[in-house]
Design a protein that fits this description.
61 strands; six-stranded antiparallel beta sheet; mainly beta; single chain
């Protein structure tokens, strides 16, 4: 009997033990990701709604952004493209996004990871989309064909209409019909003085047999096509209007004129057609009758790109993204850019930086004092190495202290005292676009206009002209050597060259050839000069002999910034691809590649003690990097929630711990997977100014 009871107890223990063990183990804590709601940023090239109407994919410059359509909330940024993203497409199940531009990438929507990179040839694929089966990607480049790629293997399955079809290209929801511009084998050349308009031929093809079904012609440039959900209609957007035709006959149902239409889409139910134009409006028509149902008007922007979900119509351009109610045509929400480009530099000691975002000036470190400088115009500002002076234009809000200097307005550049932000001197001879460099002792400025034939060197005190050197057709960048005795310039004079002059005498010391060189930097000993060009190439030169020591392709795009570390062990380059590369100066070998910004790197500055690098970008982010570990410590951004009020700021670590100005929580959302949570959900856990300060170490 006792043995039976023992066996029963043992069986119960084995049965229940896993449940007790599970309860005893602590639950794994969620790892939410901070998503700063920065609004709508930069140029938009394409948009697409997910099949369930919940998400909007936006193709922009070097990234794809996912938004919740209902709330306008930014869900995630898909960064990894090296060029503008010209097309975005959701898979039929909504789990993947196919994006085409410089690269063709397939992203997993839930994780934000790259599912597949299609190794397409070098020509630019501006049209990419999922084929209706969801396992095939269609892509069209500059060759005049349509290629079908296997999503899983990344291999070409089939090439259609070789040499017959040109962009724009679209295909029916069942994949059986293709529409595109018909490429004719012979072109009749006519006189340049001929007023006869060019003819665009459009055709429908059977996707299985590649047989032409029908075609039509018009005297307008074709911009976009769209099939109705049931495949019975095709809409076309042209430079002069929009039309709808029947499938397969090609019979014209209706056409309406319009100015420079760029994009067209059917509603998910197929009952309406939406088109965006370069005017300050988009329109919605009845798909069968062509009757105008809604005119979506915005006085401040135009809706060039459109996308349609079950409940919303989204229009967008480089300034704004609007979300409209699909039934009533009422404006539900507008997203504008809340960020401005930021530049930064260390001054004096490693504990002080100046950074400028719009008219918001940051003094100190990532948690330093923020000062709003209303005296100067947002945009160009150049600080002296000692931080005491700055060159900038006065803003329209600046009130001059005396009648004597009222004439300093009208777009003139002025020398400012950075402690008081009061004007010291009008800088005669600086106008338009120009390059500017300070000598290391802050006593001399070299400047040259983009179209001027000389570089002028000025004594800052009294703004007296010291000397001029030239002649050429414009300078792209200037730099003084660390001892202030040599001036280098990237110039164009019959060809792209780099010249070095003696500052005291104006004598030409050396000349190097680097095609399309845009920027440069001296090594700390002044014996070497780094140059970067428009195509991402960095070169290092011996200043005495003119010998090129090495060449390295560092960026997918232009080299925007160059800086040597104080110990001379790192040459940092920042590019238009948003990346920062650490190069070994002796060999040019890649030490580290930092995925830094989502757009142009505008400034790079090392601290004097070699511990930190601060980078500023056109994306509005100010990043602080640990140099020895090539690790991001902190990001700081100024956010303009309202252009009429004081901007907000936020500083946060890669782990999501943050500090910010009062009310910054209104711009914070948290993402777990693809689910978004309001800021208060995790505020107690992540609002940790103490940990943000700790991330900066002793740089306070």
């Amino acid at each position: 009997m006792l043995q039976a009871k023992f066996c029963l107890c043992a069986a119960l223990f084995l049965l229940l033990a896993p449940q007790f063990a599970a309860r005893a183990q602590p639950q794994r804590e969620e790892s939410p990701e901070l998503v700063l709601q920065t609004g709508h940023q930069g140029s938009i090239n394409s948009m697409a709604c997910s099949p369930d109407g919940r998400l909007l994919a936006v193709g922009a410059m070097r990234e794809v952004r996912l938004y919740e359509i209902k709330s306008g909330t930014l869900v995630r940024r898909l960064t990894g493209h090296d060029d503008a993203v010209y097309s975005v497409s959701f898979s039929p199940d909504g789990r993947s996004v196919l994006c085409g531009g410089g690269k063709v990438l397939i992203w997993d929507v839930e994780s934000g990871r790259i599912r597949r990179s299609l190794n397409l040839p070098t020509w630019n694929f501006r049209f990419t989309a999922f084929w209706p089966d969801g396992n095939t990607a269609a892509a069209s480049g500059n060759r005049g064909d349509l290629q079908l790629w296997d999503v899983d293997t990344g291999k070409v399955k089939r090439t259609l209409l070789m040499g017959k079809i040109g962009r724009p290209i679209r295909y029916s929801p069942d994949g059986k019909t293709i529409v595109g511009v018909k490429i004719t084998p012979f072109k009749r050349f006519r006189s340049m003085s001929s007023s006869r308009p060019s003819i665009t031929n459009v055709a429908l093809w059977d996707a299985d047999t590649e047989r032409e079904i029908t075609h039509w012609s018009h005297e307008w440039t074709a911009r976009d096509f769209a099939f109705s959900p049931d495949g019975s209609l095709v809409a076309g957007a042209t430079s002069e209007g929009v039309y709808v035709r029947k499938i397969p006959s090609g019979e014209l149902l209706w056409r309406t004129p319009g100015n420079s239409l760029k994009n067209v889409a059917f509603s998910p139910d197929g009952k309406s057609v939406v088109a965006g134009s370069s005017r300050k409006e988009a329109r919605v028509w009845d798909a069968i009758t062509g009757q105008v149902l809604h005119t979506l008007t915005d006085d401040y922007s135009h809706g060039e790109i459109v996308a349609v979900s079950q409940d919303a119509i989204i229009t967008s351009n480089s300034q704004k993204m609007n979300i409209w109610d699909a039934k009533s045509g009422a404006l539900k929400q507008s997203l504008i850019s809340l960020m401005t480009p930021v530049v930064a530099q260390f001054i004096g000691s490693s504990k002080e930086i100046f950074s400028m975002s719009g008219q918001s000036l940051l003094l100190g470190n990532g948690l330093g004092k923020q000062q709003d400088v209303n005296n100067i115009e947002a945009g160009f500002v150049s600080f002296s190495p000692d931080g005491a002076l700055a060159v900038a234009k006065p803003s329209s809000e600046f009130v001059y202290a005396s009648e004597a200097n009222k004439h300093w307005g009208g777009g003139a550049y002025i020398l400012w005292n950075t402690k008081t932000w009061l004007p010291l001197q009008k800088l005669e001879g600086l106008a338009g676009q120009f390059s500017l460099a300070w000598s290391p002792d802050s006593k001399t400025i070299a400047a040259s206009g983009m179209t001027e034939a000389v570089v002028r060197i000025w004594n800052v005190a009294g703004w007296k002209l010291k000397t001029s050197v030239g002649f050429f057709k414009g300078a792209f960048d200037l730099a003084f050597s660390p001892d202030g005795k040599t001036l280098a310039a990237c110039i164009f004079h019959k060809k792209y060259i780099v010249r070095l002059w003696d500052v005291a005498t104006g004598r030409l010391k050396a000349e190097f050839r680097h095609e399309n060189a845009l920027n440069l930097a001296f090594s700390l000993d002044g014996k070497k000069l780094a140059t970067g060009n428009q195509f991402g190439t960095v070169r290092l030169w011996n200043c005495n002999t003119g010998q090129m020591l090495w060449e390295k392709t560092a960026h997918n795009g232009a080299v925007k910034q160059l800086a040597f570390s104080p110990d001379g062990q790192i040459l940092a380059s920042g590019g238009s691809d948003g990346a920062i590369q650490f190069l070994e100066p002796r060999s040019g070998a890649m030490l580290h590649a930092l995925a830094a910004h989502t757009s142009d790197v505008l400034s790079l500055s090392f601290s004097r003690d070699n511990r930190l690098l601060v980078s500023g970008g056109a994306d509005g982010a100010l990043h602080f990097w640990d140099v020895s570990q090539a690790k991001l410590l902190l990001t700081r951004s100024v956010v303009w929630t309202d252009r009429e009020t004081k901007p907000a700021w936020i500083a946060f670590t890669p782990q999501g711990y943050y500090a910010g100005s009062p009310g910054i929580e209104s711009l914070i959302r948290w993402r777990v997977g693809n689910t978004m949570f309001p800021s208060e959900q995790y505020e107690a856990r992540f609002h940790r100014p103490d940990l943000v300060r700790k991330a900066m170490g002793d740089v306070r």
